[in-house]
Here is the input.
Amino acid sequence: MKKLLLLSLLWCATAFAQTYPSKPVRLIVSYPPGGSSDLMSRVYGAKLSEIWGQPVIIESKPGAQGSIGT
Here is the structure.
């Protein structure tokens, strides 16, 4: 009985396994392009793109003292 319970738990764990992310990721930066925040977000975006195997799109949303991007 214990073997059957263990086997069913293992089967359920693999049934819900999914790859993440499954589509392109948007990284929103709340500061204007050209600054240090933009540079660092592009460096991080490139590294995340390598790790995840999905494109990471950097979007700058400046204005309202960072409230728009937030």
